[in-house]
Design brief:
The protein is mainly α and 226 residues long. It has one domain: Endonuclease III, domain 1 (Orthogonal Bundle), CATH 1.10.340. Helix content is 62%, strand content 0%. The chain is built from 12 helices and no strands.
Length: 226
């Protein structure tokens, strides 16, 4: 596990690599962000943005999403995975927003996770991005980076990863670190092909060192055979 000095080194290096890391889901208000994050489950932000470009022109409010049949909404988001489930959750979510919150997106995690299709990760994104509240949303990128760099243990659950990062990262850096972890995982430390040879964090990365040792071993074996 990384010590405090190594953690600070990682955070500072990510800040240099991705100083402008931000939420890449295109939205104009908390409601649009909520819908976009819900749609982003098991798909990419790029795919979501393609769909919401037209979706948010057609649907402006929770009432708009309830004014159409479920089948129509399904067709509007059909290109996104799990579109049937997501369409149902969107309409359920909108009903609750109207009934319990006068159509306004609530700001607390406790309230957000009561909405259909909204888990802890989605709630944390909305809290952080829409309402500027300190939070760390653990998606696949954040989890992968945190485990590869040994911020936490390989066996940790998503909740344990979140809790560990909250302990080890200063609270005023939670939100920005969340975005930098995502950018680092999305554009540099990729799942299948991480850029270990050019990584400024290689000196403290247990996974990177293992990968480099394996690569060097294979290279040496090839050279020997020649």
């Amino acid at each position: 596990m990384l010590n405090k000095t190594q953690i600070r080194f990682c955070l500072d290096q990510m800040a240099e690599m991705f100083p402008n890391a931000h939420c890449e889901l295109i939205h104009d208000n908390p409601f649009e962000l909520l819908i976009a994050v819900l749609l982003s489950a098991q798909t990419t932000d790029v795919n979501v943005n393609k769909v919401t470009e037209k979706l948010f022109d057609k649907y402006k409010t929770p009432e708009d999403f309830l004014a159409v049949k479920l089948s129509e909404l399904e067709q509007d988001i059909r290109s996104i995975g799990l579109y049937r489930t997501k369409a149902k959750n969107i309409q359920k979510l909108c009903k609750k927003l109207i009934h319990d919150y006068n159509g306004i997106v609530p700001e607390t995690r406790e309230e957000l996770v009561q909405l259909a299709g909204v888990g802890r990760k989605t709630a944390n994104v909305v809290m952080s991005v829409a309402f500027n509240k300190p939070a760390i949303a653990v998606d696949t990128h954040v989890e992968r980076v945190a485990k590869r760099l040994a911020f936490c243990r390989w066996k940790d659950s998503v909740l344990q990863v979140e809790e560990t990062l909250m302990k080890k990262i200063p609270e005023d850096e939670w939100s920005v670190s969340h975005h930098r972890f995502i950018f680092f995982g999305r554009y540099h430390c990729k799942a299948a092909n991480p850029n270990c040879p050019e990584c400024p964090l290689l000196t403290v990365c247990r996974e990177g060192k293992k990968r480099m040792r394996r690569a060097n071993k294979v290279e040496t074996e090839h050279a020997t055979k020649k």
